[in-house]
Amino acid sequence: xxTHGSLVRRAAAASLAVALAVALAxxxxxxxxxxxxxxxxxxxxxxxxxxxxxxxxxxVEAVLVNLFxxxxxxxxxxSLEPALATSWERVSDTAMRFSLREGxxxxxxxxxxxxxxxxxxxxxxxxxxxxxxxxYMQIREVEVVSPLEVVIHTHQPEPVLLSRLSRIGSAIVxxxxxxxxxxxxxxxxxxxxxxxxxxxxRRDERLVLEAFDDHWRGRPAWDxxxxxxxxxxxxxxxxxxxxxxxxAANVPTHEAERVRDAKGVRVxxxxxxxxxxxxxxxxxxxxxxxPRVREAxxxxxxxxxxxxxxxxxxxxxxxxxxxxxxxxxPMRLFDTYLYDPERARALLAEAxxxxxxLTIRVQGPAGRYPLDxxxxxxxxxxxxxxxxRAEVEVLEWSAYLSRVWNADAxxxxxxxxxxxxxxxxxxxxxxxxxDGGYSGxxxxxxxxFDLLLAEALVELDPVRRAELFDQVYxxxxxxxxxxxxxxxxNLVGLSDAVDWTPRVDELLWMFDARPADPSP
Length: 520
Hints:
By secondary structure, the protein is α+β, with helices and mostly antiparallel strands. It is built from 15 helices and 21 strands.
C-alpha cells in the first residue's frame, strides 16, 4: 500500500529531477553561448612588428589588415570599395577630396578623425627611412578641411592615388596614442580601427587578436583570431588535417592531393598577381655584370618546366611583372619565355667562359613562397646543364632578409616573389631606379630609364600611359635586371567549418570569413 509520505517523496523527487533537467539544459545553453569561436590561420612567416608604414611584405600586411583600416579596401574580386573614406572626388590634377566615415572609433574608444589621416599619410610620405616611403612620397600634403574631410595634395598628377590608399603602407594609425607612447610603445600595445584588436604576440610563434565589438562594419563572426607561424609546408598541412589550424596558406602542389583525400578539409586556388623572379647583381665587378651572362642565364631557365614539375601546372611563364588585372602592364610579356640552352652556351662562350669555368651563386629563401627552396635548386640544375657551375644558398626567410635581401648582399642572383598590391604597372619597377630601394642589390642605374618611368608615373591619359609603360617593361626585359620565372598561383587549405574565399590581393582578411553552415 502506498502511503501519503511515499507519494510526497516521489512527487518531490520528480520535481527535483525536472528542476535538475531544466538547470542542466540552461547550463548547457549558457556554455554554448559562452563558447569562444576561434579561427586559427597558419602561414610560413611571422610579422615583423606593428609599424604599418615600415614593411613591404604582403604576408605581413595580410595579417595586419585585421587590426588596421585603409581609406579604401579592395573587394575579394579586386574592385575598390569605401572603408574609412566613404566618398571621394578629384578636384584638380594634383588634389582629391575625401569624405571620412562618421562614428568610427579606435580600439581604445577614442574617435577617428581627419587628424589621424593627416598624421599617418604625411608620415609615410615624408620619412625617407620608412620602407613604404617610395610608394607615398607622391603626397605633398594632407589638408584637413573638417574633422571628417580631407584633401590629399600630390606633387604631380597621380593617376593611381586611390589604389595607393588601399594597400601596404597606407593604413591609418592613431595620432593620439602614438604621440602619447611613441612607436616603441605602440609596438607593445598597438591599436587600430580594424575588426580585431590586439591581445598577444609571441614572436615567431603566434599573434592573438580578439573581436572588436564596436567596429564600424559590425562585430566579426569570430571571437578570436590566431595567426600561427609554421614555416614547414608539410607541418602546416598536417596541422590542417588534424584540426590544429583552420586555414593553411601556401599549400604546395605535391601536398594538395593529401588535402583533397582527407575528410573535413579542402584546397582552393588562390589567384595572385605575384611573380617569381631573380633579382640580378649587374655590378661590373661580378660575373652577372656582363649582360651576356645575364642573358645566358635567362635562356638557360625553362620556365614552363618549373611550373609543370614543381608547381603542378599552377602558374604562367612571364617576361615581366605582368598578370591579369594589372593596369597598363603589357600583356605581350605574359605567357611567354625564352628557353634556349644552345643560345645560352653560345652567349657564355662569347663572354669568354667555357664549360665549368663560370660559377654563379643562386640565393633564395625557404618557407616564404611555395617550394621556394626547390625553385632555387632546380634553377641550379638548369644552369649546370649549359655549363655554369651553380652554388645554391638557401636560408630561412628571416635569415634571408637580414643577411641577403635587406643587407643588399645578392652576390649574383637572388630569388624573390614580388606581388602588386597596387594592381598597376606603376608599382613594378620603381625600386630598380638609380635611387630606388633595390639599387644596392642590382647596382644598375640608367638615367634614361628613370626619366621614362618618371614620365609614365604622372601620365593621366590611359592610352599614352600604357604606351610609356610598354617601353619601361621592354627595357627591364632586355637589360635583365630581373630574370623572370612565372606568375604564381597559390593554393590554400581550408577546414570545411570555414566559409571564406581567397582574395586576389593575398590578404588574410577574416572579417569576411564565416562559420560554415553544418551539414543537414
